[in-house]
């Protein structure tokens, strides 16, 4: 008999549904609703976000996300997806974004069962019509205020697993309180994107799971409870507005009757607490053992790994979240990913084939040449004004510049993941640039790990479907290991493994020390700590 589980993923630009069959280990159905394609006329958005004249302010419409849920379920129903046989549902949300709801929210959820559209009555539930999302960087002032009130970078990192960041939820809540105090006072519930959508699916004000909760600067990273000091540094009476924090395997109830009546979803389908896209992707790419990392080379480059034992980074680099399997996960996010690689490609009039050739024709270590490639502001190290530094490289030497940027990106993630104290032997490389074997060779030699290529396009929705099945079996008292839950769904290209070689590893051991020195000559990452 088939055993179906549904994973949803509300990302910045779209909402996706992925149905997996645990019996056959197949992803048997996928559907995506793109916000711009479906709603550009209705909501005045571009690529899922509201275009503001101030580029630092990036918000979206929570109403649009709810609208997209209706559309997704309508399409799944008309495609005859087996909604009536789904055993459990979980979901994923873009991290950090916050939704502000008034007194009417609980009545709205409770009355959903009598409605034929999720939009019916929705305009009355928001105390703020828009939601700040992870791309917003307008709260540096509030970050400083919160950091200072808690006691500095090292203290905040120790308590919450991250320094105070503009895109994290606390500084956004603080800004709302300072600028719109009346609306803040009218706010009775503050949700993350994930817990807001879980509320819609379950008909109750849903809890936040500790994976996504860790991206708020408000949760005690060890105890997984709200941290009083952080809450009071953020805004008054905040605890009253917050929902519970629970572990990522929590079944929060059955699906709201709304979905049973309108879309014929199985009335016994269990809703498993939703989480953030990065914690879900950990599961969707099969990162369930320490020693493995995933490296996504996309618009921005993201490096994540599992961490069994909490190692707190007093310098405040990167983030520690809770992983859905109960341990910790680490995350480095770089803005100068493929955008920076493209700058080099275009400056030297190359294409991706000649870019690869440049790597083939140059040697590990680049004859002592190095680059700090900050074509755009950067998160790690903190770079506020774009700056590109070349050492021992001629700016006119196209090939040396190509090697320099790739070595810089790989060395940076090596140097800045040192504090995690996790020995990595396997990296799953994803994203466009990971298809380049020469880039993977540099990655293998710098990180001393075997590199496997991996398709992770829908890793967050796949991860939430797998979380749904794992929590379901736990509830049914036949708990599965995470290996058993993920096997069969996660496909790694074993044939095209790239392994490191001893000579190049030695070159990069020496170069990593020099790279760190060069970086600290120009960017005083550590000044914030003092
Ligand atoms: C992680 C982050 C992004 C969002 C994007 O800290 O800001 O990865 O989760 O969806």
Q: Your description of this structure?
A:
There is one protein chain. The chain is α/β, with parallel strands linked by helices. The protein folds into 2 domains: 4-280, ATPase, nucleotide binding domain (Nucleotidyltransferase, domain 5, 2-Layer Sandwich), CATH 3.30.420; 286-455 and 500-530, Nucleotidyltransferase, domain 5, CATH 3.30.420.40. Strands 1, 2, 3, 7, 13, 14 and 15 form a 7-stranded mixed β-sheet that branches. A 7-stranded mixed β-sheet has the order 18-19-17-16-22-23-24. Strand 4 and strand 5 form a beta hairpin. Helix 4 crosses helix 6, helix 15 packs across helix 16 (398-415) and helix 16 packs across helix 20 (502-522). The N and C termini lie far apart (61 Å). Residues 11-12, 94-96, 134, 167, 215, 276-278, 333 line the site of D-xylulose (XUL). D-xylulose (XUL) binds next to helix 13.
Globally, the shape reads globular
Number of distinct beta strands: 24
- Computed over alpha carbons, the radius of gyration is 23 Å
Bound small molecules, which ones?
D-xylulose
- The fold-level CATH name of the largest domain is Nucleotidyltransferase, domain 5
CATH class of the largest domain: Alpha Beta
Number of domains: 2
| Individual helix count | 20
Q: What is the helical fraction, as a range of percent?
A: 25-40%
What CATH architecture label of the largest domain applies?
2-Layer Sandwich
Biggest sheet layout = 7 strands, mixed
Q: Which structural class is indicated by helix and strand composition? A: alpha/beta
Summarize model confidence as the mean pLDDT. Answer: 94
Oligomer: single chain
Percent in strands? 15-25%
CATH-level-4 superfamily name of the largest domain? ATPase, nucleotide binding domain
- Report, as a whole number of angstroms, the end-to-end distance: 61 Å
Uncertain segments are none
């Amino acid at each position: 008999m088939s055993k179906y589980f549904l994973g949803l993923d509300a990302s910045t630009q779209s909402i996706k549904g992925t149905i997996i069959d645990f019996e056959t280990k197949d992803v048997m159905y996928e559907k995506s609703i793109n916000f711009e394609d479906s709603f550009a006329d209705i909501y005045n958005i571009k690529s899922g976000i509201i275009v503001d004249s101030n580029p630092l302010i990036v918000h979206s419409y929570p109403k649009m996300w709810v609208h997209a849920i209706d559309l997704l379920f309508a399409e799944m129903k008309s495609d005859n997806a087996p909604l009536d046989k789904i055993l459990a549902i979980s979901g994923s949300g873009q991290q950090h974004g916050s939704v502000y709801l008034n007194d009417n929210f609980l009545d709205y959820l409770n009355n959903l069962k009598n409605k034929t559209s999720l939009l019916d009555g929705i305009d009355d539930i928001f105390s703020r019509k828009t939601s700040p999302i992870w791309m917003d960087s307008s709260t540096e002032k509030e970050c400083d205020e919160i950091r200072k009130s808690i006691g500095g970078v090292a203290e905040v990192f120790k308590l919450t697993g991250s320094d105070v960041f503009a895109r994290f939820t606390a500084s956004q809540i603080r800004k709302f309180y300072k600028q719109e105090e009346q609306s803040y006072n009218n706010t009775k519930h503050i949700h993350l994107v994930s817990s807001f959508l879980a509320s819609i699916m379950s008909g109750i004000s849903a809890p936040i799971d500790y994976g996504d909760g860790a991206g708020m600067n408000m949760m005690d990273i060890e105890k997984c409870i709200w941290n009083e000091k952080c809450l009071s540094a953020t805004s008054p009476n905040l605890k009253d507005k917050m929902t519970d924090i629970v572990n990522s395997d929590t079944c929060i109830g059955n699906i709201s009757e709304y979905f049973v009546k309108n879309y014929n979803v199985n009335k016994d389908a269990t809703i498993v607490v939703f989480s953030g896209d990065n914690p879900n992707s950990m599961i969707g790419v099969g990162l369930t053992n320490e020693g493995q990392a995933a490296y996504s080379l996309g618009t921005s480059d993201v490096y994540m790994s599992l961490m069994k034992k909490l190692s707190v980074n007093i310098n405040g680099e990167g983030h520690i979240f809770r992983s859905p399997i109960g341990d910790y996960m680490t995350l480095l996010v770089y803005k100068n990913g493929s955008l920076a690689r493209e700058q080099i490609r275009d400056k030297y009039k190359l294409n991706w084939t000649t870019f690869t050739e440049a790597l083939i024709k140059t040697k590990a270590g680049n004859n002592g040449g190095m680059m700090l490639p900050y074509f755009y502001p950067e998160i790690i190290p903190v770079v506020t004004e774009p700056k590109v530094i070349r050492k021992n490289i001629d700016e006119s030497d196209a090939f040396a510049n190509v090697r320099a940027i790739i070595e810089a990106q790989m060395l940076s993630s090596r140097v800045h993941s040192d504090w995690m104290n996790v020995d990595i032997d396997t990296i799953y490389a994803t994203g466009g640039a990971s298809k380049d074997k020469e880039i993977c060779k540099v990655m293998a030699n710098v990180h001393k790990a075997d590199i496997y290529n991996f398709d992770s396009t829908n890793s967050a929705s796949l991860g939430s479907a797998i979380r749904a099945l794992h929590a379901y079996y736990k509830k049914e008292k036949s708990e599965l290991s995470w290996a058993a839950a993920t096997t069969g769904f996660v496909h790694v290209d074993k044939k095209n493994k790239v392994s490191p070689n001893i000579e190049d590893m030695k070159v990069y051991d020496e170069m990593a020390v020099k790279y760190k020195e060069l970086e600290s000559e120009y960017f005083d990452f550590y000044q914030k700590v003092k």
